[in-house]
Amino acid sequence: MCTVGDLLTERAVLGVIATLAVLGLFVMLCRARRVSTSVEDAVMDMLDRMSKASSDLRAGLTQEAADKATPHLREMLRCVAVAITDEEGTVLSWDGGANDHYEYLRDTVARAINNCHKEHVDHRKLGCELQGPCSLHSVVVVPLVVEGDVAGTLIVVSGVASKRQIRMAEETARFVSTQLELEVVQKQRQALAQAEVKALRAQISPHFVYNALNTISSLIRTDPAHARELLQEFAEFTRYSFRTDGLFTTLSDELTNIDRYLTIEQARYGSRLTVRLRIAPEVLQVVLPFLVLQPLVENAVRHGLAKKPGGGMLTITAEDNGSEALISVEDDGVGMDPDRLDDIKDAHQTGAHVGIGNINDRMRTVFGVEYALVVETAPNAGTKVILKVPKFARNVLPNLNLGNQLTDEPMTSEQPAIRA
């Protein structure tokens, strides 16, 4: 099945192809005109303008985005004017001269939209009533097709009619369409990421909430002060886990929430659960996908230590590794046969292992395939899950309104539960 990540890669390839096509035609156009500057300088200018237009168009087909993109497109094409319309033919932006001629172009634009095909018309067929020479000699209207539908049109007004100019208009429209498609795919990618976070929340509920409330209720009569403390920890845990804003968080905030989780689990398992924490302070502000560590800790407790007679130790490590942070969640529990790893890859869909496949997919989607989870395990030898997280990644920003954070003091401890 094709994933959003696959679509993004495919669209990126299409974007490169469209860019190279426009660039190649532009080079030929420059040579044909024998411009005074070198072809190399013209190509560099072309690449610069294409880069600027790309970033503008990634915001979607809006008036603001069109206003920013059309000047760059007009300079790329070396034409009289460039305009962009929406799917109804309404002009979003017109950069250059002859803008008073749009009234003569309405029928041409409508045909391009309705037929999903380029339209080319010269000045003689426009019914222009201008006395004297007109800067508009040729017009090409190319539909902008996004996900199979016409999202608008690109209008290229030229002072001369030529096949090269028509072809340049077509390739530029394809370039614009590809940027708009990438914007759609990015929105789909964000929606998928939000859906994956919701799936993790849904798994937290049945696996943890019931046992937490049961533990708290059992302490109400025997130790009400402890019960109140656990109830507060539970409230903060759920507030963080079920928040609606932000797809990313800091390692500091994720560890704080893990502290709440383990405090409640410690009340349930007692001395059977021991925690060792080794956190380098310089990686506390590293940004990672929201709810990427807590499910791994939950798996270690539920599937590794809870099934081991006498319990065991959970070790959470985060260390500096140059441009990355190395984070691991390790238990000395029952472990498993490494051959079963492929079996549990999608086990998050049934609840057998909370979020393993989900987390792996999110890490690969956000940071790249080289950031997939690494799992080390063997029967009766425990399990260790390792994550590599880049310190800096494009468009990966934390939500900054989560309240408490861990201090920047180095942490090395061995204790029944984590304390912030």
From TrEMBL:
Task: Name any GO cellular component annotation.
Answer: membrane
Which UniProt keywords are present, listed alphabetically?
Answer: Kinase, Membrane, Transferase, Transmembrane, Transmembrane helix
According to the record, the segments passing through the membrane are 12-30
Ranges for domain Histidine kinase/HSP90-like ATPase:
284-393
- Give the top-rank taxon of the lineage listed in the UniProt record for this protein: Bacteria
* InterPro entries xrefs: Bact_2-comp_sensor_kinase (IPR050640), GAF (IPR003018), GAF-like_dom_sf (IPR029016), HATPase_C_sf (IPR036890), HATPase_dom (IPR003594), Sig_transdc_His_kin_internal (IPR010559)
Gene3D superfamilies documented for this protein: 3.30.450.40, Histidine kinase-like ATPase, C-terminal domain
Molecular function via GO: phosphorelay sensor kinase activity
Q: Which Pfam families match?
A: GAF, HATPase_c, His_kinase
What is the protein name for this chain?
Answer: Two-component system, LytT family, sensor kinase
Read off the lineage from the record: Bacteria, Bacillati, Actinomycetota, Actinomycetes, Pseudonocardiales
